[in-house]
Amino acid sequence: MIEENETIEEFLAQHATDVEDAVRKAAAAEIMPRFRRLADHEVDRKSGPHDLVTDADRLAERYLTEALGALLPGSVVVGEEAVHANPSVYDAIRGDAPVWIVDPVDGTRQFVHGDTGFCTLVALARHGVVLASWTYAPALDRLATAVRGRGAFLDGERLHAGAPAPGSDLRVATSHPDFTTDEQKRALLGLWTDGVAPRPCGSAGLEYLAVARGELEATAFGWEAAWDHAAGLLLVEEAGGAHLTRTGEPFRITGGNALPFTAARDAGTARRVAELLSGGARRAA
Question: If we measure between CA atoms, which residue out of 167, 183, 164 comes closest to residue 270?
């Protein structure tokens, strides 16, 4: 196990910038040429009207799958679109091989509507532990990175999430109602209380970045898809934040979490939001 971890650490020390280059090149080749230029036939719907996929998603994921696999032989790629086509691909997150977790366009709805609030998310994990992450907003040309134990950075500057100002309302980005069950909706109602200012979330990756930057106090999400969360959770952790499910346990990318869960600027805020979510669920029961 020690040798395996050292091997991944050595890989990151030597090739983290190569991963960054791959992410940037995928966006330059497949995403940005289609930004605000999508034709109708390049946009499809998956599970519902707010669950969109475009040619940019598919082609950027294909680019990253080839590039990241070549960088780390023996690794596997779990991408959102590959899992949509074959759900068994997701099982690799629980396996022994290093796994790249990829969301080629996080915030596809924003991308389709010509909004700059989308990003590409890449995380490297093993045995259910996220080891490194890359969050790239190509329309803004901003890149956030994190390596476990080495901190979080935005365009090379270290991120510190800090703590909310005493007495201020907690700004919390929450799941879109279309992606929450009735039980989760009831739990989220716990946030509608004095001292909390909930609002609908945009791109999950950019919401996590906002938490890591101290611009948002917390998130409250009701779905587990690792490609939406893995990169951002490590970013928040390495900026000094914390994440908890509504039963008070850290979120696991391997699944089986009590939802909704929160990621927050500091441990105290994470506990408060988790307690509010748990209280909302109890009151509605």
Answer: 164
Q: 242 burial class (0-12, 13-18, 19+ CB within 10 angstroms)? A: buried
**In angstroms, rounded to a whole number, what is the distance separating the alpha carbons of residues 268 and 208?**
17
Give the pLDDT of the chain (285 residues) as one tens digit per residue.
Answer: 334 445 898 999 999 999 999 999 999 999 999 999 988 777 777 655 556 778 999 999 999 999 999 999 999 999 999 999 999 999 999 999 999 999 999 999 999 999 999 999 999 999 999 999 999 999 999 999 999 999 999 999 999 999 999 999 999 999 987 778 888 999 999 999 999 999 999 999 999 999 999 999 999 999 999 999 999 999 999 999 999 999 999 999 999 999 999 999 999 999 999 999 998 656 555
SS3 content of the chain, % helix, strand, coil (to 5): 45, 25, 30
* Tokens linked to 87: 């759900």
Spatial separation of the C-alpha atoms in residues 134 and 12, rounded to whole Å:
12
Report the helix count and the strand count for the chain, using DSSP H and E.
8, 14
The owner of tokens 């691909």 is 89
Q: What's the rounded Cα separation, in Å, for the pair 201 and 210?
A: 11
Is the full-model pTM beyond 0.90? yes
177 prior amide bond cis, ω within 30: no
Residues 6+ apart with CB under 8 A from 100: 64, 65, 68, 69, 72, 75, 76, 77, 78, 122, 123, 124
**Under a CB-based contact definition with an 8 Å cutoff, are residues 201 and 219 in contact?**
yes
Query: What type of residue sits at position 90?
Result: Y
Which DSSP state fits 161? -
Question: Which residues sit opposite 15 in a β-bridge?
Answer: none
Q: How far apart (Å, rounded) are the C-alpha atoms in residues 224 and 70? A: 28
